[in-house]
């Protein structure tokens, strides 16, 4: 007895896009800042703020545009990256607007500059430009692997961006800005993305050579002498940035990013050890003869010293803000972090979070940052190509290092660096560059989570005869 059966190819099961989940999370990401905006108005002026509807519509429109573009052009992307970034951006706008209402800051601006210009409207404009760049990334970057073609071009562009501030005047002792008319651009914010692209392309090609084991000393595989060239070059470049621009933050970000990606590419613990030792040696060496860096270290060690209080009062005021916040905070609009001065809405905006949201609110903010990093790492694990894995981990690592450097400086864990808190602090370069970073991560996650196309059915397979006795 024989039975003839037709066999067909079974298509792959369609993976869920999770876009509705993203939309639901975006609703919360818009509602929470709007309620915070209302809270500030009631606390400061005892009335519902007149601009609440406009603010809600503005942040909702930006979030809606981002969601529609992701739904259309990256339907399988991670559903949490856009809502998390929107929530941080929205809360940052509320905190900046809250500081704009401070009578002390308004009086100080009138005395020094003759007039006061609020920063919240400008930050909302920068956020709109950031969303526009986010949309442009998703529209133009159809496949993240295209960036691999520009490995060495990206290196040249990154070097130009890092060197450019040397030719412009210093701001607060550090040369990190490029002034173009009324606009100030911080090239380091964009350089971190371009550097990550270069490192991803370079390490994907060279990782086998860098991973070769040499002599083993004290349980560590020491790299060969010629393999030390890349890390020595990057170490020297970070030191030069620190010397000529007195920019501790960018140096830490630049070198830390390379060490993280080098470790991920080679899986050699020795690179981490070498990186930490060389980073410490470079920082100590520069601090001994560079007055600006040495001054920041002194302020970090003695923030309440009476002899330097006029210069270090911002750090002291920030630490007192965290102490005054306690566990649950004083409430939005009811703190005194504006005593820090004009840096309260940029470098030290986390101190406003610490005072008015308390320890619980500060941990919530850091948890949101941690979730963005976690989703980036998850994207790196899911990516199918080595370039995408390295780029996702590089962008996530750069984001994590920047948050650590800023939060550590404000909280007194490390010397102050002058970098801005991503999405929260006032600053056009930071918010625009970080929206581009989120756009690239979303593109990589879409490629990683997109189901493979089902193979076309074979005519030969359909005519296959299976004979059973």
Automatic annotation (TrEMBL):
It holds the Pfam family FTSW_RODA_SPOVE. The chain crosses the membrane at residues 23-40, 52-69, 81-99, 124-141, 150-170, 190-205, 226-244, 250-266, 271-289, 357-377, 389-414, 420-442. It is a multi-pass membrane protein. Keywords: Cell shape, Membrane, Transmembrane, Transmembrane helix. Residues 449-469 are annotated as: Disordered. The keyword Plastid does not apply. It is found in: Membrane. This is FtsW/RodA/SpoVE family cell cycle protein. It comes from Streptomyces niveus.
